[in-house]
Inverse folding.
């Protein structure tokens, strides 16, 4: 767009000085109806000046074009949800756009995504078996649905996804389709999935592989903007991570070669099994029928450094501490100075490279995530600015003149009322607008209205305790509402839990199985105290003040359930209506439930310690903020589980059919540890195996077992899973936890300082992924926003 020139009068000169300023044409279809002269164009200036003469009040006859109002409502909703505004803005498309993003449609889409992912548990090989174990010895027969059942459900889900992608293409237009890589990929995945589904139907569900299973997680990623940003951030982080991992591999390979030269092997045809079968009393070894040497010299070299591949794998597993100190013991038993080799190896790899990898992932991932959040913040500001521009360009007064810099508060209020905004934020915005009703609002003020979306909205005023006039009762009320009354209740709960711990530790059978146990009697006394405590608090505070605290509600709930369980126990103990043994088991379960509920009261301690409360608050925020990360983890688990089923199904080590003591498995092996339930025979079992490997402990057992039953190359699968899940995903998880906790702690300390210094309550941000980095985000200028609005593919087609 070209630059235009405006002129200002200079008091010292009769001539007008040109001022080079970028201005923007008003967008609107009703420009012809304006009473302004046809040769004078009206423009929206990029300046955000709020001078008094520009703020003109609207009279009662001012109104807004319904189309512009609808456009503003949709743009506001886009901004609230961090959605792109690059979609069609004609009335029908906007109506259909709002229908598409309505809750019924979106929940149907979520249900389809969940369903198509869960189908992996029921498709052949089904995870449903007649037995409750995944162990082949106790698993029983698999329960398979008839051919066409799961396929029909899958086809219904694919139809929903087809509707989804077609709707998105229609709403943004074909011109924007080429610019959206995710939508193009969506079309490709849909086409491939439908073709593979037809292949399944053609083979009557008896095809060898269902390749479309690998593509199903794409539907989960594609439907979440936050997951896309997380994937993009992880992808951008990988080059730096790959450099550290490569350095780590070089470190392992160097010590591999060093170890093969350090730990000798005998010059002959001696096999490792000979060393394994040696008893502890045998310290000599005959090599080539002539030389007699100490067998301990060759034990490390033969067991763990027999080849480059075996040496590399031994050190890789050692770096994860899964086989430490098993790998080091043969050499250490021979010579204690060999321990230096392993100490140096672990010191550099475990405590230097691994921590460096965590630091690199934290720094790089945080940087790219901030960049993504900056783009989301810009998208939100862009949506609000676009809404303001639609209103400003279309608002008219009675004589047809167009206001340039402001929008009527009444019009803004109508937009807020119609837009889908969180209730608390909407209430705060409307309250602020009602205070300026009849006035006008500028662009910057319009943007500021919606800042409450990121803030913790102040709750309604905390109601006080009920009003009591009698002096004695008022003194009793003061004692109950005092914080020391809460301390006393917490102390009683701690004493109760300590008593339960002592009784269970010393007299488990008597405490849980006998009716006249001391534990049961003392629990009755404590439960009576808890009931009296809740009654007193309810009386002193009143319902309005009592329900305001979540702690009070939880205490009341646990106390009520505890009282009901105790009453049931006493009734069953006293009545003896059921003389059979089943009553004993029911009463035993009630005793356990009572003690478990009492144990929950231990969490009352959290409310009395500020640091502990921040930690718990951070954990609760993580549950909300980790949805995108958990989605990525689900995708990784899903893909690796399907791949594991394809590669290892039916190749897991099988239990022996005989009990010959001469065929006993080696100590620490898959067979000896009885790991038969850990297999890749179905999807559920594969998920559990991947979890066990991600925990790292004993993961080398799976490496050795499947390298024997499948192939040596199968180790690549497990190594890839370890690098992906442990070195990348868990470090990203650590980075998110660190950032979340540091942000929560810093903001809490800042609020405390400001409250002490200024005496008022400072602004508190909601803890979400978008607001986690709020202090690091830059505000876009109005010129940048207007430039982006002018590039809108559908706004620029409007006549002006």
């Amino acid at each position: 767009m070209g630059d235009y020139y405006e002129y200002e009068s200079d008091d010292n000169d009769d001539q007008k000085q040109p001022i080079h300023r970028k201005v923007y044409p008003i967008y609107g279809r009703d420009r012809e109806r304006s009473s302004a002269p046809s040769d004078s164009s009206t423009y929206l200036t990029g300046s955000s000046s709020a001078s008094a003469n520009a703020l003109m009040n609207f009279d009662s006859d001012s109104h807004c074009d319904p189309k512009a109002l609808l456009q503003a409502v949709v743009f506001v909703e886009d901004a609230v949800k961090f959605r792109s505004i690059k979609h069609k803005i004609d009335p029908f498309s906007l109506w259909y756009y709002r229908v598409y993003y309505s809750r019924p449609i979106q929940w149907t889409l979520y249900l389809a995504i969940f369903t198509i992912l869960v189908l992996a548990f029921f498709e052949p090989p089904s995870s449903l078996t007649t037995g409750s174990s995944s162990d082949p010895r106790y698993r029983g027969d698999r329960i398979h649905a008839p051919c066409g059942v799961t396929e029909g459900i899958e086809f219904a889900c694919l139809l929903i996804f087809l509707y989804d992608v077609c709707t998105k293409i229609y709403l943004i237009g074909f011109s924007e389709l080429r610019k959206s890589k995710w939508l193009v990929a969506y079309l490709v995945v849909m086409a491939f999935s439908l073709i593979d589904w037809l292949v399944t139907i053609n083979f009557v569900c008896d095809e060898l592989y269902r390749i479309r299973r690998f593509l199903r997680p794409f539907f989960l990623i594609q439907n979440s903007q936050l997951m896309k940003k997380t994937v993009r951030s992880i992808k951008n982080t990988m080059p730096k991570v790959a450099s550290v991992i490569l350095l780590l591999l070089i470190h392992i390979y160097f010590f591999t070669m060093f170890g093969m030269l350090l730990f000798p092997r005998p010059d002959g045809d001696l096999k490792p099994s000979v060393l394994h079968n040696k008893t502890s009393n045998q310290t000599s070894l005959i090599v080539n029928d002539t030389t007699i040497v100490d067998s301990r010299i060759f034990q490390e070299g033969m067991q763990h450094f027999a080849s480059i591949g075996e040496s590399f794998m031994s050190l890789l597993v050692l770096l994860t501490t899964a086989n430490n100190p098993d790998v080091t013991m043969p050499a250490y038993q021979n010579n204690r100075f060999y321990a230096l080799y392993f100490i140096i190896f672990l010191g550099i790899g475990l405590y230097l490279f691994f921590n460096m990898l965590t630091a690199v992932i934290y720094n790089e991932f945080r940087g790219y995530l901030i960049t993504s959040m900056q783009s989301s913040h810009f998208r939100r500001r862009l949506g609000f600015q676009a809404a303001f521009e639609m209103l400003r360009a279309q608002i008219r007064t009675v004589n047809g003149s167009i206001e340039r810099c402001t929008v009527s508060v009444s019009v803004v209020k109508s937009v807020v009322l119609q837009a889908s905004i969180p209730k608390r934020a909407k209430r705060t915005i409307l309250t602020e607008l009602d205070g300026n009703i009849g006035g006008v609002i500028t662009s910057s003020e319009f943007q500021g209205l919606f800042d409450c979306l990121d803030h913790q909205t102040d709750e309604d005023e905390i109601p006080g305790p009920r009003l009591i006039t009698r002096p004695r009762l008022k003194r009793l009320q003061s004692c109950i509402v005092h914080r020391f009354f809460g301390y006393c209740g917490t102390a009683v709960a701690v004493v109760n839990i300590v008593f339960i711990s002592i009784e269970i530790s010393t007299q488990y059978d008597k405490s849980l199985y006998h009716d006249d146990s001391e534990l049961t009697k003392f629990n009755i006394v404590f439960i009576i105290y808890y009931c009296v405590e809740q009654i007193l608090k309810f009386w002193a505070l009143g319902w309005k003040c009592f329900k305001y605290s979540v702690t009070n509600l939880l205490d009341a709930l646990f106390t009520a359930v505890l009282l009901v369980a105790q009453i049931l126990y006493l009734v069953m103990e006293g009545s003896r209506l059921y003389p059979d043994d089943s009553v004993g088991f029911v009463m035993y379960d009630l005793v356990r439930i009572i003690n478990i509920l009492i144990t929950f009261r231990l969490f009352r301690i959290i409310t009395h310690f500020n640091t502990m409360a921040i930690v718990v608050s951070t954990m609760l925020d993580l549950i909300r903020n980790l949805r995108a990360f958990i989605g990525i983890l689900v995708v990784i688990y899903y893909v690796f589980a399907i791949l594991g089923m394809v590669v290892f199904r039916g190749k897991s080590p099988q239990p022996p059919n005989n009990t010959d003591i001469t065929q006993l498995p080696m100590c620490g092996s898959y067979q000896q540890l009885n790991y038969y339930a850990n297999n890749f025979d179905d999807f559920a079992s594969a998920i559990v195996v991947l979890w066990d490997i991600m925990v790292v402990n004993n993961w080398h057992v799976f490496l050795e077992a499947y390298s024997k039953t499948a192939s040596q190359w199968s180790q690549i699968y497990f190594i890839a899973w370890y690098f992906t899940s442990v070195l990348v995903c868990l470090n990203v998880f650590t980075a998110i936890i660190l950032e979340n906790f540091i942000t929560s702690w810093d903001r809490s300390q800042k609020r405390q300082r400001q409250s002490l210094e200024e005496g008022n309550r400072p602004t508190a941000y909601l803890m979400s992924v978008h607001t986690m980095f709020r202090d690091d985000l830059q505000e876009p200028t109005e010129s940048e926003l207007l430039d982006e609005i002018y590039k809108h593919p559908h706004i620029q087609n409007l006549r002006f």
DSSP finds 29 helices and eight strands in the chain.
